[in-house]
Amino acid sequence: MSGEVQILGACPLDCPDTCSWVVTVEDGQAVKMRGNPDHPYTRGALCVKVNRYLEHTKAADRILHPLRRVGPKGSGTFERISWDEALEEISVRLRAIVDEHGGEAIWPYNGTGNLGYLQGSEGIAGRRFWNVLGASRHYLNICSEAGNSGLKAINGTPGGMDPENFALSKLILLWGTNTLTSGHHLWKFIQDARAAGAHVVAIDPIRTRTAEQADEHLPIRPGTDAALALGLLHVVLEEGAEDRDYLENHTENWEAFREEILRYPPARVAGITGLPETDIRALGLRLARTRPTGIRATMGIQRHSGGGATLRALAALPAVTGDWRHPGGGIAYSTSGHVHLNIDTRDDLLPAPVRTLAMTRLAGDLDESVKCLWVAMANPVGSSPDQNRIREKLLREDLFTVVMEQFPTDTADYADIVLPATMQIENTDLHAGYGHMYLMWNEPAVEPPGECLSTTETFRRLARHMGLTEPSLFDSDLELAEQLLSSGHPSLDGITVDRLRKEGWVRLNVPQPFAPFADGGFPTPSGRLRFPRGSAYTPSHTASAPGGPYPLALVTPAPHTFLNTTFGNNPELRRRAKGPRVLVNPADAADRGLTDGQRARVFNAGGAFEAEVEISERVRPGVVASAKGNWPKLSPGGATVNAVVEQRDADMGRGAVYHDNFVEIAPV
Length: 668
Ligand SMILES: Nc1nc2c(c(=O)[nH]1)N[C@H]1C(S)=C(S)[C@@H](COP(=O)(O)OP(=O)(O)OC[C@H]3O[C@@H](n4cnc5c(=O)[nH]c(N)nc54)[C@H](O)[C@@H]3O)O[C@H]1N2
Ligand SMILES: Nc1nc2c(c(=O)[nH]1)N[C@H]1C(S)=C(S)[C@@H](COP(=O)(O)OP(=O)(O)OC[C@H]3O[C@@H](n4cnc5c(=O)[nH]c(N)nc54)[C@H](O)[C@@H]3O)O[C@H]1N2
Ligand code: SF4
Ligand SMILES: [Mo]
Known about the structure:
Blueprint: E1 4-10, E2 20-26, E3 29-35, H1 53-57, E4 67-69, E5 78-80, H2 83-101, E6 106-110, H3 127-133, E7 137-139, H4 145-155, E8 171-175, H5 179-182, H6 186-195, E9 199-203, H7 209-213, E10 216-218, H8 225-238, H9 244-250, E11 251-252, H10 254-262, H11 266-273, H12 277-289, E12 293-296, H13 307-314, H14 317-321, E13 330-332, E14 356-358, H15 362-365, E15 372-376, H16 380-383, H17 387-394, E16 400-405, E17 417-420, E18 429-432, E19 438-442, H18 455-465, H19 477-484, H20 497-503, E20 505-507, E21 529-530, H21 541-544, E22 552-555, H22 571-577, E23 581-584, H23 586-592, E24 599-604, E25 607-615, E26 623-625, E27 661-667
Parallel strand pairs: 6-15, 7-14, 8-9, 8-12, 9-10, 11-21, 12-13, 15-16, 16-17, 22-26, 23-25
Antiparallel strand pairs: 1-2, 2-3, 4-5, 4-17, 18-19, 19-20, 22-27, 23-26, 24-25, 24-27
Helix pairs in contact: 4-13, 8-11, 8-12, 8-13, 11-12
Bound molecules: ligand MGD (2 copies), iron/sulfur cluster and molybdenum atom.
One ligand MGD is lined by residues 14-15, 112, 143, 175-178, 181-183, 203-206, 208, 220, 222-223, 225, 298-301, 304, 555, 557-560, 562-564, 629, 659.
């Protein structure tokens, strides 16, 4: 067909797979998007969500112009204004805030709606601009920081196995991870392993679609996984299957940790985890006898008070068994620890040292000291802990709230100014998967609709409008990409912007197959893996305390049809999600007189939301589950599951505790 071109891009969403896609453009219009079959990891298929991405870019509710609030905060009533008017109002307000209260009164609140190194939360976007103004720093700890910190404590890095190497594993532990929903491209590698005889075990309080496909499912009590890890190691020691040579040459503190393991015999672990002792023993034996064993743990398992200690304990397994020696052995949490880009946010531009505000703590920390909240790539009213308190805080009249958005989210409803943002087919970006080993390029396929601007362009225009002169604020996207690749780290050898643009992706320059710790070499001061000192198991909140008036432990996992709250307004995906639902075990339902399909109120001291009851053996007694991702304003009662998620810090990294809250349920 004449005038038809194919443009290579990458999915920007917060998903480990970072798919390669191909957009067909005809006469300046994107007419088709498909997964790129040539990409070595994502191999073609996208997912149920992003199959609707093109439709989503053209959705009727897409924000296409700058908006100014005309109604009360929260009402979502706006008038259209020009970019000039928007930039002028913002400039005046920001100048006044900086003059009167100092730059720290600005909270640049970036979320994970886009993980791009140019446009998204991983990268430069806006941060140089905020440094010039002396704004508070934002700590992006909403998702993975407890686990990252636990892994750094033991291994010196969150980076571990190359997920492609699961194809070589003989025993695979899918530990608190819902692969088929939250990063399904790994499944092909698991299937390859299975074809070669691997045994696959899912460890999850919910019988998810992943657990259903596994060879074995252990429905563990939430937040007790570190105890299970210690119990499995107890069996490994009973069998004499520890790798003494690896322990001696590549680890620290083994003797004390060995004592800690001996405090967790399977009978005790059965009491803690709610799993039969025979199952723990059987898995321990398998672990003792199977090399290589690969552990896949993603972020779900660490959304608990003890989340950091959990990842640290899981990461002890491949050190004791010596699995790190083999490709196909070890633990894979996030590959981002292997990505060494030069993210030059120019902190030298800061006029003075500034405070850091944590993303998880918006409900508590959005106090009088914050005069401007600048939200980008985030929908905190839908996704952050303690929804009701966030709403209250956003109502403050003297708070100047700017939201850069693609869609009229619940958060945008509270904005004074809304700025229209591009979607991925309309902007340039550089990405790195956190579930694979490739850098990815996203070439814009079409012009932005309406007056949408990319993140980088928005900040360039704002800097110009404010009369700022720092040259690096005006670097072009391609210049920024060059800078990102200029760290000099060997993993980037041979990777250039030209090459990325031509090829679409390039594998990090690491050995293939990749076995990062086969000969030790952990990025710790001693080069050795550091076994935990003291107690290795920190029980979660719901595992340690009786619930009192709220006895049910609530887990709030990833929905199949949304990506966090992204797509939460897509009509077809909403239809498939069938509204907010809560999974209740038959015994707990009977105790409360709940019937299948009925509307119920799920509540605790912090708030309440409504959901349709689904009575199911897929959850353990005492545990209920309701997915994240629904939009409050599109949900019955105007609230979602995050109304009952408390703002509490995990043990490490100040991670959020989304899967670690008590609730009660009553019929509506
Ligand atoms: N379709 C879809 N895909 C997504 C997302 C999405 O919203 N939708 N979100 C993306 C994002 S932001 C992230 S961070 C990743 C997260 O990906 P996952 O880690 O898969 O996320 P979750 O669904 O939160 O948790 C996974 C599983 O952990 C289980 N779990 C909870 N607590 C415990 C526990 O204490 N022990 C054990 N063993 N299991 C537990 C839950 O029941 C759940 O089935 O997925 C990404 N992919
Ligand atoms: N109950 C519960 N809540 C959770 C979790 C849980 O397990 N349970 N998981 C948490 C996790 S893992 C995460 S990562 C967070 C995510 O929470 P958030 O960071 O708030 O992510 P989203 O909810 O996806 O909202 C992202 C918004 O960014 C917008 N966006 C996308 N791309 C761009 C862009 O290029 N520019 C601009 N300006 N905007 C863009 C989208 O339209 C969307 O409205 O949610 C957390 N919330
Ligand atoms: S959300 Fe994940 S699986 Fe879906 S297209 Fe994006 S990267 Fe691929
Ligand atoms: Mo996340």
